[in-house]
Amino acid sequence: MIEVSIFQIYVVFIIILYIIRRPRIGKDEPPLVPYTIPILGHTFNYIFNTKKFIKECKEQYGECFSIYVFGHTMTILSRSSLTDVFRNPDDFDLTSATNEILPLHQLLIYNGGTCRESVKFHAKTTREQVSGKLDTNIGVVQKYLLKGMEKWIGDCNEPKIVYSAWNMVNGIIALPIANIFVGEEAASHEDLVKSLENLAFDLGPLFMIPPILSFIHQKLHEFVITLPMKFGWNPVSRHRETVMNRVRPVIETRLKEKNMLGENYKPYNDLLEYYMNQPDFDYTKPKNLPYHVDNLFVMTFVSVNTTSRAAADALYDLAGRPELLNELYEEALTIDRECNGSLTVADVKKMVKLDSFVKESLRHNDNILNLVHYMISKSFTFSNGFTIPGGRKIILYTDDMLKSKEYFGVDAEEFEPFRFLNKTSPATKVDRSYIVFGGGRHACPGRFFAIYETKMFLHKLILKYKVSTKSGKIEDKLLIGPFSLPSQSGIVFENRN
Ligand SMILES: *[C@@H]1O[C@H](CO)[C@@H](O)[C@H](O)[C@H]1NC(C)=O
Ligand SMILES: *[C@@H]1O[C@H](CO)[C@@H](O)[C@H](O)[C@H]1NC(C)=O
Ligand SMILES: *[C@@H]1O[C@H](CO)[C@@H](O)[C@H](O)[C@H]1NC(C)=O
Questions:
Q1: Does 294 score more than 60 pLDDT?
Q2: Which of 183, 303, 421, 434 is the most buried (most CB within 10 A)?
Q3: CA 490 to centroid of ligand 2, rounded, Å
């Protein structure tokens, strides 16, 4: 009688896995960092010891090298090979790699996926309607930033302590965005604002599932996390319903106005109007309004959570540095007096110290690696001579570039808030080394808006409150694998007057 124990099956399984999943490296490829534990490879170090591990690999194996994580080979790129990725955007695909972790194409089911065509459309929308309309929308942004601060921070005659300030900042940042996306009428409804505010937050749990299944096949993780959606569970549906209910009456009113006024109709400046003007807009057709609302959700998804992240990091960076706060207060007060409390784009440009500080804060975002891509051509040769085969997953060693002595000087590791002052190097300017918004022709087109909103938020906040960390120290970010999150420690708010 043959008795097969679970253990024996396990051993056979592991051996088979080991054989089929052994990485094969071609001869002109970047070196594969050696490892001792089969199958697992570098996974453990990659998750629990990222910063040190990647740094040591680069010191030992050079600016580009491959590691073996979650059952596949991934190539880490820094310096010139990183720049090559931005210079050759047609060879590298960010969308398909991102979809594996966050299946937006399965969540926004009416949007027809996140194919290159729709990415182009959203980039154009952002350029023309969001970043391109700062002048027109600055009054709305200002008004709702103040409202948001009143609602979320309010009166701090007695010092108020806020933990996990990202959530609070997210609420404040989302309010102006909701207003310039759907217009003031629809955004006067709290449930709609909540939906736009929480959209990214509600998808958070999906990110938290570690891609264990990738050990078996690269696409298995994506397949499994999207299973619930195939059975009708979708965290976005509820938000879609809410937003549709609120924008439908507004669309109807606007169409009536258009009919009545004809030539004299005064178009609104929001995204809703922009979508209404698309040739394929016909909200009476069954899937048409959900489609446009899903477009709006893509815009929400890429703007709210990222901008609030930048603003929350800056808030913690500021709260830990009392001298900096004083210096920025001086600047803010001067500008506030000049414009009598009502900012224009020119006034925001005048906030040069604040701009340098925001840029330095972004440079210190402390993500170790970022922007995973698939190489989608047959093969790609980097300027340093190494070649990678098609289908290879790559990730950028952004922290190395952002802290490089070569570009930022010997004190590159330090936090120097006024590092960029007098350097004609505004926070929105993408260059070879300042890659927080990506680079090349695909650099994030929303950065102009994101920086403006962040600066305006900090400006108004500094005028109104004194902020400090509860601990009295500079707080570090949380590190989860290669990615960082804002600190969750307490921030103390006190009224200035
Ligand atoms: C931002 O999005 C991430 C990913 O979905 C989520 O984990 C995080 O909680 C969100 N933050 C806020 C403040 O919404
Ligand atoms: C400045 O603003 C205040 C109130 O917002 C207003 O009463 C005052 O007239 C304004 N002053 C100037 C010079 O515009
Ligand atoms: C920037 O320039 C101003 C005047 O042009 C000067 O007073 C200031 O010290 C400079 N700051 C830095 C950090 O170089």
A1: yes
A2: 303
A3: 36
What is the mean predicted confidence (pLDDT) over 255-275? 96
The residue type at 324: L
Closest C-alpha to ligand 2, atom 14: 340
428: in domain: no
Range of the domain at 3: 1-101+368-412
Is 200 inside a domain boundary?
Answer: no
Q: Is the pTM of this model over 0.85?
A: yes
180 or 72, greater pLDDT: 180
Q: Return the pLDDT at 113.
A: 59
Model confidence at 20, pLDDT cuts 50, 70, 90, reads low
Q: Which residue's CA is the closest to the ligand 2 atom numbered 3?
A: 340
The Cα 484–Cα 414 span in angstroms is 18
- Total of domains in the chain: 1
The residue to mutate among 169, 198, 201, 239, having the most atoms of ligand 1 within 8 angstroms of its beta carbon, is 201
Tell me: is residue 64 an annotated ligand-binding position: no
Nearest ligand to the CA of 197 is: 1
Distance separating alpha carbons of residues 459 and 392, to the nearest angstrom = 44
> Could you tell me which residue, 14 or 296, shows the higher pLDDT?
296
Q: Is 95 in the pocket of ligand 1 (CB under 6 A)?
A: no
206 lines ligand 1 (CB under 6 A): no
Region 114-122: mean pLDDT is 82
Rg, C-alpha atoms of the chain: 24
In a domain, 172, yes or no: no
**431: in domain:** no
d(CA 193, CA 274): 19
Ligand 1 centroid – CA 210 distance (Å): 16
Q: Is 365 in the pocket of ligand 1 (CB under 6 A)?
A: no
Q: Pocket of ligand 3, candidates 324, 421, 425: which has the most ligand atoms within 8 Å of its Cβ, to mutate?
A: 421
pLDDT of 181 > 90? The answer is yes
Output the CA torsion 221→207→295→128 (10° steps): -120
- The pLDDT score that the predictor gives to residue 382 is 97
- Residue whose Cα lies nearest atom 10 of ligand 3: it is 422
Whether the CB-CB separation of 180 and 140 falls below 8 Å is answered with: yes
Angle at 439 between CA 436 and CA 443, to 5 degrees: 85
Amino acid at position 39, single letter = I
